[in-house]
Amino acid sequence: MNEQALSEVKVLDLTRYIAGPYCTKLFADFGADVIKIEKPDGGDPARKLGPFFDNDPHNEKSLIFLHLNTNKKSITLNLKTTKGKGIFEELVRDADIIVENFSPHVMPSLGLDYNTLEIINPRLVMASISNFGQSGPYRDYRASEAVINGMGGRYLEMGLPEREPQRGAANTYQYQAGNAAATATMLGLYVAKTQGIGQHIDISIFELLNTSQDLRSTNLVAYQYHGQTQTRTPSIAGTSLLPGGILPCKDGFVFSFVFPGMASWRNFGPMLGIPDLMQQFPNPFDANRRGELEAIWVPFFFERSKQELMEEAQASGVSITAINSPKEVLEDPHFNAREFFVDIDHPLTGKLKYPGAPFRTEDMSWVARRPAPFLGQHNQEVYGTLGYSKEDLVKLRETGVI
User: Out of 93-102, 255-264, 273-282, 297-306, which region has the weakest mean confidence (pLDDT)?
Assistant: First the structure.
């Protein structure tokens, strides 16, 4: 196998659940030697998160875990034991990166804070991902995606104005945090490699929300200018005759972004074969005529599949997209033409399709080398490099160290 971009990089992965494992997955998929360090009694709690393969709640069949931990090695290690901490410090000596997403008090309470670890390895880059960051009054608060969005003001902008705020999709910012952490850590690694200086990188999911580009940063800046809070917008179906929003078609639904003043509205008539549609309906906010327009576009939509509608809309300059099921996404001709999804063979699930490279390089440095590991699968391999024999590992297991 050709060398990958990060083949010479060694990562100690102390992460759990989603944000941290996604960060280290990016390193592993581009070639880094990522050693996932898990608790002996169950490992990463994500192993217990559904959905599960064949609906079997098995510790090694969580589809979230399988996706987020491809190309990694797994060892078990109890960091609360003196011997366990000593072994971890041995691993730190040759590591380039540590990524952890415990609560901020955990690593210092274990005696494994960055100030301690950098004495062992001055070039070490350590990324800490937490809900609110390593300092501040909220530092030790527990949080979920809902808490982060609520406290960050995002939910106030979601939903209908006459109803309560609406929550969004779960775990979105967990993945964004993992991506941001990987980017920041690579910058830290570059400095470590070029200048010989390690550093501790503090990633706050709460702060990440408020620098994101899904209207959060835009609305916060707007507030600074005019002091007004972004309001929730009403449904287009209640204020306009235009076919905007989720609409039915022959085999399912499409999302239509045909709104007043946009090119999509000007191009919608020609797409329907009625070039003078705007002249027939000059006032797009005249909801009293909605029935007349529906008599035109509804039959047109129900004669076509969502894929056909999307393709005709693209050719006409109209913003309409298919709303696909997971099966349809996997079978999408564009993804398949670019070979985006890859088959990874796991001992308990067989071959499954996984999302592939998040971006492409000329040498295609992203490679699916192996499936997510079993808990402790690489104990003998990793500890063997430190000089521990099989007999040593038996004793360590008996004493609760691994």
Answer: 255-264
